[in-house]
Every structure is written in structure tokens, then in C-alpha cells.
Write a structure and sequence with these properties.
The protein has 319 residues and is of the alpha/beta class. The protein has 14 helices and eight strands.
Length: 319
């Protein structure tokens, strides 16, 4: 891939002073590490509907009939729900080329989960809301990798998000260059081990679907269905058990090339990973070393070994 993935992002996370209090929530990982590998398309939904900065704080209000509305905390009668809905309805259909979206946690417009709800009298309720903009984003683009800044501090969720971003970008590029059956089959073949590491049942289900590709006259319709299945599987973080199964499967490709000492070393590294004594990077690095020494045509195509730029160092933190 020669082009960079494009990420939507809440404007405040880039360091822009667009928050209600005139500040920002610049996220170091996004701007200092990920930024060199992606391009951003920032947006502040609240400013996009014409609100200034600084501005009075907004809240999610649950009305007596169960409707969620966005109102100002100091003036609960001022309802901007429709303005936000109109903006989201106009903006979101135009961003289908994105490979992911990072939203601001706890925001009444951008929060992905656990946003504070209030009743019409201003009483605090549970943290179980979703920001109005992000709720529409998730509904409109259900396949899109979406995470909020707080959750990206978790190494597993961070790695999973970035992995999905680069997978979707490659798939989008495939479509942009013109879909062919061969290109779709080659893409799926490259992702087999990666899918197996994420969800074994999903891997088994998507296989027959891809095998039916010859029955589809409309390749774009197949693409849309495949994209949803692929991203659903990848959204489930790869488990230690599934990684171990994949690593042992790869190990089998070298049984005739490695001597007794090398086989024992590889076996021990995989077992130490399985037991939580080593990070996933350890067995993968050793396998990549043997793959360079004993090339295998199939393994060399597998995206599992390099699902995103190594320089991000994400596997160092994933145990």
C-alpha cells in the first residue's frame, strides 16, 4: 500500500482548542506515534453545528417519553438535537473512504459509551449513553473501526483498532483500484491466519462465503457483504489461545527444515507465550527469522506477520 489510511477524529484529540471550555484533549499516541502512518480528517460536531468555543456545556437529556436529546446544561430548554442529527446525516455518508474513527470519550456528541445521562430536571443518571454524533456514526457505518481515546490506552484494544484500520484501508484500496475476483480471493488468502487468530468460528464461516464468490455477478455487492463479515471477525481481539493455535500451525511448515535444537527452541518460545511468560512478539519474531531463512510461498503472503507498521511497536505491549 502506497497511500496512508485516513482516520476521522474528534478535533479536540488533535490538539485543536475546540472543546466547550476552550481547551483540547490532545492524545499523545495518536499525534506523536500513529500520525506518521495515517492522515487525519478532524471534525468537531459541536462547532460544525455553529456553536462557538468556549461555549456552555451540553448534556444528554432523557425525556419522560424515553427520547434522548442534547441540551445545554445551563439552559435545558435549548435543544440542539435536530441540528446535530442534521449534521450527522449530511456528513457521514460522505466519509465512506475512511479506515477508522477516533472519538472523544464522555462527550455528549462524540462519546462511544458510558456518557452521562440526565433527566429533564437536571438530575444525574447512569453513565450508559452514547454521544449523538457517534451513535449515528456507528449506525451509518457499522463496519468502520471506531474507538474512543480512553479505550486506546489499553494495549490490546489499541493494537486491535490499528490492525482493523490497516485491514480496512487495504480492502478499500482494492475497491478503489477496481474489483476483480482474483484480487478479492488473493486478499482473503493473505488474511487467513489473521482471521484464525481472531475468531475460529468466524474464520470457518467466512470461508464458504468466499468460496461462493463465483456465484456473485455484482462484485460490489459481494464486497459490501465481505467487508461486514471481515470487520466483525477482526473486531474480536485475538486471544492467547487462538494465537497459540496459529503459531503452532505455522511451526508445522518448518518441521523438515529445522534441526532438533531449533525445533525445541521454537516450541519453547511458543509455549512460554501461551503461558504468559513472553509477549506475542517473541514467537512471531522467531518465526519471521525462520521464514527469511526457509522461504515458504504461502506464509510469505500472510498479513498475520505484519498487520501494521512494525515501528508502531504495538506487539511489544500485548502479552
Amino acid at each position: 500500500m502506497t497511500t496512508k489510511p485516513v482516520l476521522g477524529i474528534s478535533g479536540c484529540l488533535t490538539g485543536s482548542a475546540v472543546r466547550f471550555d476552550g481547551g483540547h484533549k490532545r492524545m499523545g499516541f495518536i499525534m506523536d506515534e500513529l500520525a506518521q502512518w495515517v492522515n487525519f480528517r478532524p471534525v468537531c460536531p459541536e462547532m460544525a453545528i455553529g456553536l462557538p468555543t468556549p461555549r456552555p456545556a451540553l448534556r444528554l437529556i432523557v425525556t419522560t417519553d424515553g427520547e434522548t436529546q442534547m441540551r445545554f446544561s445551563h439552559a435545558p430548554h435549548e435543544d440542539v438535537t435536530q441540528k446535530m442529527a442534521d449534521f450527522a446525516a449530511d456528513y457521514l455518508p460522505k466519509i465512506g473512504d475512511l479506515a477508522g474513527f477516533v472519538v472523544c470519550a464522555k462527550s455528549p456528541s462524540c462519546g462511544m459509551e458510558r456518557v452521562r445521562l440526565y433527566d429533564e430536571n437536571g438530575n444525574r443518571g447512569r453513565k450508559e449513553g452514547v454521544g449523538l454524533f457517534t451513535a449515528t456514526l456507528l449506525e451509518t457505518l457499522p463496519w468502520l473501526p471506531v474507538e474512543e481515546d480512553g479505550r486506546l490506552h489499553d494495549p490490546v484494544l489499541r493494537e486491535n483498532f490499528v490492525e482493523r484500520v490497516f485491514a480496512l484501508h487495504e480492502l478499500n484500496t482494492l475497491r478503489k483500484n477496481g474489483l476483480t475476483r482474483r484480487a478479492l480471493l488473493d486478499f482473503h488468502s493473505r488474511y487467513k491466519l489473521q482471521l484464525l487468530a481472531h475468531h475460529q468460528a468466524g474464520y470457518r464461516e467466512i470461508g464458504p462465503f468466499v468460496a461462493s464468490l463465483h456465484e456473485w455477478e455484482d462484485l460490489d455487492a459481494f464486497f459490501v457483504a465481505y467487508r461486514e463479515k471481515l470487520m466483525t471477525i477482526l473486531k474480536k481481539p485475538a486471544s492467547r489461545k487462538n494465537h497459540t493455535n496459529v503459531l503452532m500451525h505455522i511451526q508445522g511448515y518448518f518441521r523438515n527444515q529445522l534441526n532438533t535444537r531449533q525445533r525445541g527452541e521454537l516450541r519453547d518460545v511458543i509455549l512460554h507465550y501461551r503461558n504468559g511468560q513472553l509477549p506475542i512478539l517473541a514467537p512471531i519474531t522467531l518465526l519471521k527469522h525462520y521464514l527469511a531463512e526457509y522461504p515458504d510461498r504461502y506464509l510469505m503472503t500472510q498479513n498475520y506477520f505484519d498487520p501494521y507498521p512494525d515501528d508502531l511497536g504495538l506487539r511489544l505491549a500485548v502479552k
